[in-house]
Specification:
Blueprint (H helix, E strand, L loop, with lengths): L5 H6 L4 E14 L3 E5 L7 E4 L7 H5 L6 E10 L7 E12 L16 H6 L8 H23 L3 E2 L5 E2 L11 E2 L26 E3 L4 H11 L1 E9 L12 E10 L3 H22 L1 H16 L11 H10 L3 E4 H9 L2 H4 L16 H12 L3 E7 L19 E9 L3 E8 L4 H10 L8 H8 L5 E7 H9 L20
Parallel strand pairs: 3-5, 6-10, 12-13
Antiparallel strand pairs: 1-2, 1-4, 2-3, 4-5, 7-9, 8-9, 10-11, 11-16, 13-14, 14-15, 15-16
The structure holds 4-amino-1,4-dioxobutan-2-aminium adenosine-5'-monophosphate (4AD) and magnesium ion.
């Protein structure tokens, strides 16, 4: 007999004869009531066992975590808390779960740390089930948004020969042996003998390849894994994360901001419309977590209110120069509460500054733009009419409450000569990036794009606080379990 998903059973508006459900036992109480979950929804279906006519042997095996199959009639529930339940006529244990050993016991509320160590089982909890369903819906929303607008989905390479961000935080890819590495005459590793006959690494961003496609297909987006070997052990950084990178020919920085804002609002709205039960649960979880925090550290809005706020309010657009003025005059700066004091124009903003701007000053999402050229990547377009020594580029970062930077992007430097000069100044190998420079040699045009860190978006939407909790198997410094 084909089983019916718990979600569909719970949504049934009529009673049904002889249904079958399969799933995992969440709880079993009074030798009679099974809360069964199959992952299709956060809600469990109550299965009522006729315990008098069920052998003790079987009843003992209905333990938390066990996989079971139940058959029976779907009837209106007499108990509170659910509208329907299954009156079990046949129960089969598919896979036992030793109650002594199964680590996810509802009674002793496992800590998030403990759950991270058990990332293969944590998805059996309500919390992680909800997070991962929301994550899945959000990724569908990403595709839906861009596909509706006629963007072409481009799969940029994961193994690359270039360092898109020029930050050098790359994982090397090699098939050379560690002992007995082939060397050149001057003692360096001889990559000519490696698999690709050159030095390669895992991509930090698909942008540069994406740009070449935008300059033919017009509007493209990537959505794939990216890798950074930065040793940042924070609640916002992963060594392997997913990034969405749209790139659009003929767009300038203002168009880029409009696109980013519209896109983010669309995916959040999509999650609100399609993940109601999960988000309601996550909102309650967050409220509960915040009870243990001092009043001042609690968020002013509950989760759903916060998500709606982002939909209903424009993002505040502020130039870097304005932001520096605000920060310089801010109380934490004057009282030396920031770890990095802002004294002058040109300072790189730390996450403490970004969060001050978003959470304390503007109290809404903020788009910072026109950053100093020397703190941003080589490919960003130099602003016309900037003072020597105070050059700015058409960069934008979107900052979110509780998250900090969620998007980084820019209008690109489309002028061949200006780009070459910048690369020379930064000692970026022109030969290596000759293919990239071809976009500027042949039919160059204004274009712009951005990268959205998918896990940071999932963090925001789920109200979780640690990025390790919104990706199934997080990779961070010192951790590559599973
Ligand atoms: O600001 P980033 O480094 O920008 C780029 O990579 C550009 N090539 C994007 C583009 O213009 N096409 O990274 C973009 C976003 C950040 O804003 C952040 O949300 C996320 O990627 N991100 C990370 N997320 C998790 N862990 C990390 N280590 C991250 N590094 C960046
Ligand atoms: Mg950035």
């Amino acid at each position: 007999m084909r089983h019916t998903k718990v979600k569909d059973l719970l949504n049934s508006t009529t009673t049904l004869q002889e249904v079958n459900a399969k799933g995992w036992v969440r709880t079993f109480r009074n030798n009679q009531f099974i809360a069964l979950n199959d992952g299709s929804t956060i809600n469990n279906i109550q299965c009522v066992v006729d315990f008098e006519n069920t052998p003790d042997e079987t009843l003992k095996r209905i333990t938390t975590g066990a996989a079971i199959s139940v058959t029976g009639n779907l009837i209106e529930s007499k108990g509170a808390g659910q509208s329907v339940e299954i009156q079990v006529t046949k129960l089969e244990i598919l896979g036992d779960s030793d109650a002594e050993k199964f680590p996810i016991q509802p009674k002793n509320k496992p800590s998030l740390d403990f759950l991270r160590e058990n990332a293969h089982l944590r998805v059996r909890t309500n919390m992680f089930g909800a997070i991962m369903r929301v994550r899945s819906v959000l990724s569908f929303a990403v595709h839906s948004y861009f596909q509706q607008k006629g963007f072409v989905y481009v799969n940029t390479p994961i193994i690359t020969g270039s360092d898109a961000e020029g930050a050098g935080e790359m994982f090397k890819v090699t098939a050379l042996p560690f002992d007995n590495t082939p060397r050149t005459q001057d003692g360096k590793v001889n990559y000519k003998e490696d698999f690709f006959e050159k030095e390669t690494n895992l991509t930090v961003s698909g942008q540069l390849e994406g740009e070449t496609y935008a300059m033919a297909l017009g509007q493209i987006y990537t959505f794939g894994p990216t890798f950074r070997a930065e040793n940042s052990n924070t609640s916002r950084h992963l060594a392997e994360f997913w990034m969405i990178e749209p790139e659009v020919a003929f767009n300038n920085l203002d168009d880029n901001m409009d696109l980013a804002e519209d896109f983010i609002q669309y995916v959040i709205k999509y999650a609100l419309d399609n993940c109601k039960d999960d988000l309601k649960f996550l909102e309650a979880r967050l409220l509960d977590e915040e009870k243990s925090k001092p009043q001042a550290d609690r968020s002013e809005m509950a989760l759903l209110e916060k998500l709606n706020f982002v939909l209903e309010n424009n993002f505040k657009r502020v130039s870097y120069t304005e932001a520096i003025d605000i920060l310089r005059d801010s109380t934490p700066n004057k009282k030396k509460k920031f770890n990095y004091i802002i004294n002058e124009w040109g300072a790189d903003l730390q996450s403490e500054h970004e969060r001050y701007l978003v959470e304390k000053h503007f109290k809404c999402p903020v788009i910072l733009f026109d950053y100093p050229a020397n703190i941003k990547a080589f490919y960003m377009r130099l602003n016309d009419n900037t003072e020597p020594g105070k050059e700015t580029v058409r960069a934008m970062d979107i900052l979110f409450p509780g998250i900090g930077e969620i998007v980084g992007g820019s209008e690109r430097e489309e002028r061949y000569d200006v780009l070459i000069e910048k690369m020379k100044a930064l000692e970026i190998d022109e030969e290596e990036l000759s293919w990239y420079l071809d976009t500027r040699r042949f039919g160059s045009a204004t274009h712009a794009g951005f990268g959205l860190g998918f896990e940071r978006l999932v963090l925001f939407v789920t109200g979780m606080t640690n990025i390790r909790d919104v990706i199934p198997f997080p990779r961070t410094p010192g951790n590559a379990e599973f």
